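Hi everyone, sorry if this is the wrong subforum. Our group has a chain we'd like a structural model of before ordering constructs, and none of us has done structure prediction before. Sequence below.
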Amino acid sequence: MNCNPFTLGHLHLVEYAAAKVVKLYIFVVEEDKSEFPFADRIELVRQGVKNFSNVEVLPSGKFIISQQTFSGYFNKASLQDVAVDSSEDVEIFAKEIAPTLGITIRFAGEEPKDNVTRQYNENMKKILPRYGIEFCEIPRKELDDEPISASTVRAALKNGDFDKVKRFVPDTTFNYLLKHHAELKLHSTARVDIKLATTTGDFLLLSISDENAEMWKPTAWQQKGDIGYQIESYAGKLEFITKSTVEGQVILSLLGLDVRTPEDYSKRIPYWIDYTKLIVNGQKIFNTVTPAWHDKPYRYNINAKADEEIKIQIEWLPHNK
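Answer:
Right subforum, don't worry. Here is the predicted structure as tokens:
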């Protein structure tokens, strides 16, 4: 696997293969010729498959899909209409690597788009049985009638289709992408405002599920007669418990980040968030896509009793354009 980056499609292949064998080796292409560096790619694979007890993740080294054994793999774009010879790579695996590790079956995902990888699969299908090694081609996992692939994820990142990115990768990969792609983080960060329409008492945040969430009590609210919290999170789901020390109305607002244009700070950039679920004290308020951004928030009012705990559960996705 190249895993550039690791997707739900790769995870599907691992689930299928791991269920068929006692021990599964995953070889991650070590050549640093991909958009995501090898050190990150192999770590994403390890994080993505950590719940499989019979899976071991290894670097491919210099003899499995490397510049030395299969250089064409790294020039796919220019070789789509060319016959590519990957026999040396497959022969080395069959003669040297498989016997050393006791490998009797090799798995690969079907390749519906890329002709270079498709030819590699065809070579494995022809060569491996000569050495007593079974070859198993696994059908690709699809979502919305589209095969889940790393190339699709990269294109979605480039085109700003962040909803697709979220749906095509596991949480471990998505969290990595958030740290390395500023625009993705902006489109994935929900802002939740919760405030009590009085300053005669206090409004407490007792617990919150996302340890990385940023939160603060805006002093500007107090000047207007309110007290509460602004919370920003890119976790995709959030659960928190609040409590008011006095009776009053609690206003919950779901919105996007407050981002201004560099040219005119008075103008906001509409970073939409697709909220998909809101539950208040066990009552489902909505569970359908509810878009919101800073200037068009979704608001819900709660009549709070003194010292009564309020449990809020929220889920969201990057906005689907």
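For your construct planning: The radius of gyration is 25 Å. The mean pLDDT is 94.
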